[in-house]
Amino acid sequence: xxxxxxxxxxxxxxxxxxxxxxxxxxxxxxxxxxxxxxxxxxxxxxxxxxxxxxxxxxxxxxxxxxxxxxxxxxxxxxxxxxxxxxxxxxxxxxxxxxxxxxxxxxxxxxxxxxxxxxxxxxxxxxxxxxxxxxxxxxxxxxxxxxxxxxxxxxxxxxxxxxxxxxxxxxxxxxxxxxxxxxxxxxxxxxxxxxxxxxxxxxxxxxxxxxxxxxxxxxxxxxxxxxxxxxxxxxxxxxxxxxxxxxxxxxxxxxxxxxxxxxxxxxxxxxxxxxxxxxxxxxxxxxxxxxxxxxxxxxxxxxxxxxxxxxxxxxxxxxxxxxxxxxxxxxxxxxxxxxxxxxxxxxxxxxxxxxxxxxxxxxxxxxxxxxx
Length: 371
Known about the structure:
Layout: H1 2-31, E1 45-51, H2 55-66, E2 73-80, H3 86-96, E3 100-105, H4 115-125, E4 130-135, E5 138-140, H5 145-150, E6 159-161, E7 164-166, H6 173-194, E8 206-209, H7 210-215, H8 231-237, E9 243-245, E10 253-255, H9 261-272, H10 280-306, H11 310-334, H12 344-364
Parallel strand pairs: 1-2, 1-4, 2-3, 6-9, 7-10
Antiparallel strand pairs: 4-8, 5-10, 6-8
Helix pairs in contact: 1-6, 1-10, 1-11, 2-3, 6-12, 9-12, 10-11
């Protein structure tokens, strides 16, 4: 028994070291990063929104796109085979604003339920070289969203990763979990991008050029994968030279969060299912991050219960927790999620268990279509 506990103890030490390396070497890339204010660029932009049964959200949030303070931009609205009055709402807006273009996607047996097919049609229909993507349930936090995101384009930078958070709901533990998961994901992809290893972005706030899209054959390489119009495409084309990040507050978008665990769980199943198609180096690093987190808590609890070398275990446990809080503080402030720090360990454990459950579920059955 003692030999076994010694093995658990040394494994715990190794896990803490691995976690410390990730926090101190990887995540500090974003923690200590200051966003430079880029020079204003008045480039022609196409804002692309793909909507499926989003009539109400378009009514509520499209005005925040229309009223952007930007000299020249078009809005491409893609109606992806909706069965509500999404198309009618789009047409009402198009009658009022000349810069709105509608792409009405009809049912296609080959690409049924595939958002990438609809997006490809929208991109082809767009007029401008610079493309900015968001969703129908998203709202820019300021009228300078387009200006902030597009300011990061340059001759070399053809891909811009933005941040999209979720609205806060008071006294909702699920809402905190959703926002924590979003914060962690952003820390990961911003930090990896600054390290020269960009691996994903979120379609709620993402920009790239039309030339980049077609030069890389668009979504062809993963068209049959239901999700991944954002992260798989970024994983395919992004590198340290062509990728920039935008995390100024005026460049944020906000989305409506799920209000039931079941609906959020279903959404995350679809999102997580794309990770298996990432490049090998990204899969190895992300697997190491998650597995070291999972093992940290399992091994720590085991050692605390058995009181084996408890004083050293406690010191290592506190060391890791202190590092975590130190590294999370600045990103939480930058991304306006400060309230999550109070219950950070609880949210971490909750998310780890949820992700493990999702992984097991995805092995058993495939997630559904995007809507």
